[in-house]
Amino acid sequence: MGATAEKAEPTEPLRLNAADAIREAIISGDFGPNQRLVEAELSQQFDTSRAAVRNALVQLATEGLVERIQNRGARVRAVSLDEAIEITEVRMVLEGLCAAKAAEHATEADRERLREIGSLMQAAVATGDVLGYSDLNRQLHARILSVSGQTTACAVLERLHGQNVRHQFKLAMHPGRPNVSLPQHLAVIEAVCSGDAEAAEAAMRTHLRSVIETLPEVDKDRTRRAPAGA
């Protein structure tokens, strides 16, 4: 009995480690849309058992990151334009709520950090540092969610971010987008830092409504650039 218990204990940590590793690979773009996820290859890549990988793929399927097809295995789930828009519409509601709560809960240290991010975003736009701006964009949204203290909303948003990250990255790379989104981000920062919950929610909704309006244009550009037969 003791030997059996000792063997069973590592199962849960292995499963969580495999899920975290595969999730990060999907979110970072290392695994692309529709890419096959072969248990044997993932087991070797992440130095874990095939059982742990299998459990991880089941978990990631419930999160909407992986698609399991009968008799064909698993693959990274592709998110359509329509679904990306729906996801962003949900984000608009939840992140608007979080911005309002952040305005109510922000400390002086929080306000200093938000303003610092805003200054860095301005510098990134001025120098044409698109990748740097994209990273600061993520930092800003994450910081506002953290300050809000809305754990349930944050958990939902984290899952949605994983599903929609590839569309978000394409949006960040879209020509001229940083110049459009910068004043929107600065408006969110100013409202949160001034403690105006209503203005913070409105500014965040305005920003994400702009994202929704731009997504079809970004998707059309992606389709136009795709090689024939892709």
UniProtKB/TrEMBL annotation:
Organism domain of life: Bacteria
HTH gntR-type domain residues are: 12-79
Query: Do you know which SMART domains this protein is assigned to?
Result: FCD, HTH_GNTR
Coiled-coil zones: none
A Pfam family for this UniProt protein? GntR
Protein's name in the database: GntR family transcriptional regulator
**Signal peptide segment:** none
Q: Which UniProt keywords apply?
A: DNA-binding, Transcription, Transcription regulation
